[in-house]
Design a protein that fits this description.
The chain is of the alpha/beta class. It has a domain of about 150 residues: Diaminopimelate Epimerase, Chain A, domain 1, CATH 3.10.310. The chain has eight helices and five strands; from the N terminus they run ααβαβαββααααβ. It has a five-stranded mixed sheet, sandwiched between helices. Strand 2, helix 4 and strand 3 form a beta-alpha-beta unit. Helix 3 runs parallel beside helix 6 and helix 5 runs antiparallel to helix 6.
């Protein structure tokens, strides 16, 4: 009797001590490519749409330090969309490590599932209920009608509006307005040269160095995640 009881306890302890990977296969998330904002592995978006979303993503990050990303995959395998969303968010490290202020929109085309994954720092701005309403209003109608790219564009813009607290990102991305009376190039060069000379004469070049610093920070290579983490907040839908 004692031997059987000991064997049972030993078996239980062995099961509990098994590494997670021995019980369930790890979730495989595709490595990010280019700027973190658009990861379209299901090839839903065209080049113009991707560039529009990247521009919005940069604006949002520049204004708030928050990062909004879209991830599309053909299939999530045996995983639930919730498990996949959490793992993808953590893999990409959206938002900053200090604020955890990222949002990830995930589409699984074969399973017909969509999820908004929200980082800890934005759960007050986009609580679960609001995330669900955004999907219901901006994503599901277009997904049902076979328009996944439109669903992505509208949902991404809605999330950008929520994160920034503004309404500058409409359902249709606005095109830059043409300037009716552009400044002649030669005049612009003279103005810039004069400003730089005056800056070095009176301020030791402080303004010039500051401007160059801003320009260099705005350019550069692709933007990656900032190390944020998700607590599983958000909402999921099927279509």
């Amino acid at each position: 009797m004692v031997h059987k009881r000991f064997s049972g306890i030993a078996a239980l302890l062995f099961t509990l001590l098994l590494p997670t990977g021995a019980i369930a296969a790890p979730i495989e998330i595709p490595a990010p490519v280019g700027d973190i904002y658009v990861q379209d592995f299901a090839n839903i978006l065209n080049d113009h749409e991707e560039e529009q979303l990247r521009n919005i993503g940069r604006q949002v990050e520049n204004q708030t330090t928050s990062q909004i990303a879209i991830l599309t995959v053909n299939s999530i395998g045996e995983n639930s969309i919730e498990e996949y969303g959490v793992e993808a968010y953590r893999t990409y490290g959206l938002g900053t490590r200090e604020n955890n202020n990222g949002v990830l929109l995930v589409l699984a085309m074969q399973e017909k599932k969509v999820r908004i994954e929200v980082g800890y720092g934005l759960e007050g701005t986009i609580p679960d209920g609001k995330a669900g309403r955004i999907l219901d209003e901006y994503a599901i109608p277009h997904l049902v009608n076979g328009q996944p790219s439109l669903a992505i564009m509208n949902t991404y813009q809605a999330l950008a509006n929520e994160v920034t607290g503004a309404s500058e990102f409409g359902s249709e991305p606005s095109e830059p307005e043409a300037q009716e009376f552009p400044i002649p190039t030669w005049l612009l060069i003279i103005i810039v040269f004069a400003v730089v000379v005056l800056d070095f004469l009176f301020f030791g070049g402080t303004l010039t160095y500051l401007l160059l610093s801003i320009i260099s920070r705005g350019g550069g290579g692709p933007r990656g995640g900032g190390g944020g983490s998700s607590g599983g907040g958000g909402a999921s839908r099927g279509w």
